[in-house]
Amino acid sequence: MNQPRNLVIALDGSDPSFDALDEARDLARAMGRELSALYVYPHHRGVSATPAGLDEQTSRENLERMKEDKAKEIFSEAESRLGNAFAHRYVLTGDPAEEIIAFMEGNPGTHLVMGRRGLSKIKSLLMGSVSSKIAAHAPGLVTVV
């Protein structure tokens, strides 16, 4: 198997995602690769994000601002824990599992590192999990910490 070209940590601001950051940093060092970060702002299609009294354009601008603010907060926290900056920062919007899988399809050779939420077995079976879905359907290497 060819060694992945890109090493990407998926961050969502949760403790498990920051725990996975340590593993991603160690992998990047061992592989001699730069580490990039990916954040998916969870917004599901078909769900109206337009509060009463706001037009669609204003709502879109607010959504974009909230997404950028949250991404900046998460990336800044992660970079301060790492002590250095990411090679690339990717910010996507949508269902996290679907967007990450699509990202990997569009970026062959990506090795994704991500944390898991630690749902109970019952909740995982009933609700599924982002990390399980990505591990099962992603076209590249996925490490779940």
UniProtKB/TrEMBL annotation:
InterPro entries: Rossmann-like_a/b/a_fold, Universal_stress_UspA, UspA
Xref: Pfam families: Usp
Domain UspA, chain residue ranges per copy: 5-145
Family: Belongs to the universal stress protein A family.
UniProt-recorded name of the protein: Universal stress protein
